[in-house]
Amino acid sequence: MKFIKLIIVLALAFVSCKKNSEKAPVEITDYKTETLDVTTSIYPENLTKVFDAHGGIDAWRQFQFLEFTMEKPDGNEITKTDLKNRKALIEMPNHTIGFDGENVWLNSKDDSEFKGANPKFYYNLMFYFYAMPFILADDGIIYGEAKPLEFEGKTYPGISISYHDGVGESSEDEYVLYYNPDTYRMEWLGYTVTFFTNEKSKELHFRRYNNWQEVGGLLLPKSIVRYNYANNLPTTVHSENLFSNIKISKEKPNQDIFIKPESAKIVE
Prior knowledge:
There is one protein chain. This protein is α+β, with helices and mostly antiparallel strands. Helix content is 17%, strand content 36%. It starts with a helix and ends with a strand. It has a single domain (47-266), classed as Clam (outer membrane lipoprotein receptor (LolB), chain A). The chain contains five helices and 15 strands. Strand 6 and strand 7 (154-163) form a beta hairpin. The longest helix has 22 residues, at 2-23.
């Protein structure tokens, strides 16, 4: 009799567990439909900390348009860039350089000869310098550790930047971002120039970033100092670029401003 009662109790317990399991099915998440924040997982930890010290890479990616004015002896230079497709416009006193997504073009406002750098080399040069460190989150980049920079008794850890073949106009270019070990703010940029040779260079040029301003929640350069160099080290100040009238917007810019005027010539 006791045996029969035990069987009945076990049967009732089984039925109860089965009912409970039916009421509480296992929840399965379909990650194909989920929006995941993986931004900080695809960069080296120290680079992520540099981005964060400047406002964060997620904040940077919310913006679509950047404009800045650079003071020059022969007149101010205004650079406008679509941050998503990298179309560009540089307005100078007598000339305009543009990139419409396919071609670089040059337009002269008078009969004066353009004596600046090759427009295909220059159209995004200062934008790349100005958009540091965020520009180093672009696709096609290979990250690595670099030898620290020693300058005036202080040590700056380095992050090496190289590119997969075919990325950009000069995929042989290499950069080294040096940061302040206490604040993680970017302090120096070492870089090679390969546009004119298409060959890897071992000679580092240097620009210093130690004057920042807050714009739209981001730290962007107020000035960038170019240094002379020797033996892959900065030596003395060469010149300084000053920036003003900074505008950064989450609104997509009017694409018409990048279209080549009829009077402009495509740069080959």
